[in-house]
Structures are given as structure tokens and as C-alpha cells.
Amino acid sequence: MNSNFESRFAVSPNEVKQMNTEALRENFLIESLFNQNKVNLTLSHYDRFITGGAMPVNQKLAMPNPENLKAQYFLERREIGIINVGGKGIVTADGEQYELDYKEALYLGKGTKELFFETIDSSKPAKFYLNSTPAHHTFPSKKVTKEQAEIVELGSLETANHRIITKLIVNSVVETCQVQMGMTELKTGSVWNTMPAHVHDRRMEVYFYFEVTENQSVCHFMGQPQETRHIWMQNEQAVISPNWSIHSGAGTSNYTFIWGMAGENLDYGDMDHCAINDLK
Question: Where does Zn(2+) bind (predicted)?
């Protein structure tokens, strides 16, 4: 079997207040995304967002069509964003090939019937990180390189949050129904991302942490601004962030993370900020 599918229900803030560490991790942490020659998918009932990873090593992998979706094929009623976080690879969509290098992205629109993943050099396997959301319109597929992305530099070393934000799949770069993806790279000496924290009732997010060096970790903060919780995370793990929750993190060294969003608007700046001194 070369695929794995998991479905997770949405839970309310009141339920989360009662959760211990194990329950928080079971509901929100996605521990395993990349296994050799396998596609892993996790469906969250927050905006029916699917987070996944495909790691072809020495065989071409087909995108599975989980029975739970009740669809003829995976992208029948969905769109998908893909970012390669491994060696060079190829995504084939309805016969058209897209070569993706490290940190390059690909958007595929609703209606793409056949989707395959493969690695160019098996000694350096590709790792395709996947975010998929429901879609009600078909937009053209598009590859996005870092040169084509919208890049913003924020923060400072003095506040330990000097970072580069690379907006890869956003409405200023590529047309989508609702999926948005980008990458935030922390500079050496900086560890905080997304601080001051915020919530946005109109969208949920998933954070994928990578380039976390050996023997280091990231502490991800979630929950309502006055009722926060934390989850310790390792390299190449993802965490589901509900629309009522803050989403911020600090690492024991610098790292990179991919943010993926879905919801009822495409306004990147749609955020309800929380003052740092008001967090509890």
C-alpha cells in the first residue's frame, strides 16, 4: 500500500481547554508526512483542508483518491498547492510535466484528473509537501519559482524575528479559489515567527516546519489569545491551526516553515492582531 489517509474532526475552543498534551497532539499535530514511496494525507474538518506529503524514491507515485472524498478523482472538486522540500522531482498533471527544484511551488486547478510524483535522483528523493482545499472554479495550473514569488522582509534581530516571507501561491502571484501557500525563513539568531500573534475568523491555517537542524525543536503556540497551549514539534512535521486559534512558534535555533491557508477570502492581511502583553 503506497498511501495513507486520515480524517480528523474539528473541535471547539471549549474542548481544547480540557485537553492534555496527548490529546492536543492527537488532534492537531501531523507527525509523519514523508515515508519512502508513499503518499500521506490528513483531512481536517476545518475548511476540509488536506495536508499531505509524497516522497517518491525509486518509483512513480500516483495521487490516491480516498473513498472518504466520494469523488471520481482527487481533484474533481479540489485544487492543490505543492512545494518541493527535497531533491529535484517531477509532477505530472494530465500528461504535462513540471520539474520542481528545492522550494519551488506548483498550483494545480480543479479538474486535473491524473497526478503523479517522481524523483529525478533516487539518492536525493523529492519531498512534495501538499495542501489541498475544495474548489468551485477551475483556474490554470502554474509553476512558481522563488524569483516569481512576492518576497517581504520583516522583523529584526533585536526582537529575534528577522525573517524573509516568500509568498508563492497567493492571489497576487497565481489565481486560486482559496488555497494559499508561502514560506517563512528565519535568519540566523532569530527564532520567533508570526509575532505579534493573530487570529483570523475567516481562515484556518496549517504550519509545516522544516530545516529544523538535528537535536533542535520548535515550540508551536496555539489556542485562544487568553487561553494558549503549546505543542513541541520536530523537523518535517505539520500542525493544524483552527480559525479561532493563534499560530506562532519559537525554535531552539532558526528554521523554515510553510504556511498554508484556506477560508472565505484571499486577503493575506486579514488578521486580528493580539498584543504580546495580552497573551495568556
Answer: 198, 200, 205, 247
Domains contained in the chain, number? 1
Annotated binding site for Zn(2+): 198, 200, 205, 247
**Which of the four pLDDT bands, split at 50, 70 and 90, describes residue 43?**
very high
Domain that holds residue 91: 21-136+150-278
Q: Which residues are annotated as a binding site?
A: 198, 200, 205, 247
- Residue 36 sits in a domain whose CATH number is 2.60.120.10
Counting beta carbons within 10 angstroms of the beta carbon of residue 88, is it exposed (0 to 12), middle (13 to 18) or buried (19 or more)? middle
pLDDT in tens, 117-132: 999 999 999 999 999 9
Query: Edge to edge, what strands does the sheet with 218-224 contain?
Result: 192-193, 248-251, 218-224, 227-233
Among left, alpha and beta (phi > 0; psi -120 to 50; other), residue 155 is: left
Residue 141 lies in a domain: no
pTM for this model (two decimals): 0.97
